[in-house]
Design brief:
- By secondary structure, the chain is an all-alpha fold.
- The protein has a domain of 83 residues.
- It is elongated.
- The N and C termini lie far apart (46 Å).
Length: 143
């Protein structure tokens, strides 16, 4: 089955921390980029598409370049709604995928809910079954 890279091992344990600093919305994005340019010239469907993106959770971490990408994509979405075609849809899907449109895209980009990122601690609540607890081993008289 096709995918991205080899399948993970059945008993794989991730030990390195995932850097999610790229998801922090530390940049001040001008309001003009967050609003659909020339909104009155677009159909209701395109405006609904824009509003869905603008109100999405991943939009909170968008930088100015991401908003610019959506602005550039809006005319293509409009043309697709007026005259559907597989070429336009493929281009829209590819661009939306880069912005984290689907669950799979967000998993690949390692996007998560902000609450889950903040509440997560360095130490897990429970160790996997195949990992030894060295603190317990030492307390029982081990090395």
């Amino acid at each position: 089955m096709a995918g991205r890279g080899p399948a993970p091992k059945e008993n794989a344990v991730r030990r390195n921390a995932v850097d999610l600093s790229h998801l922090e919305g530390d940049e001040d994005v001008p309001d003009k980029l967050r609003k659909l340019f020339k909104r009155d010239s677009y159909s209701v469907a395109t405006c609904r598409w824009w509003d869905t993106w603008a109100e999405s959770e991943q939009a909170e971490s968008f930088k100015a370049t991401d908003w610019q990408r959506l602005q550039m994509l809006a005319p293509l979405v409009e043309s697709y709604y007026r005259r559907p075609g597989h070429n336009a849809l493929a281009e829209i899907r590819q661009n939306e995928s880069l912005l984290g449109a689907t669950v799979t895209d967000r998993m690949r980009l390692r996007m998560g809910k902000k609450d889950a990122d903040k509440s997560g601690s360095d130490k897990p609540d429970k160790l996997p079954e195949n990992v030894a607890d060295f603190e317990l081993y030492r307390s029982l008289g081990g090395a």
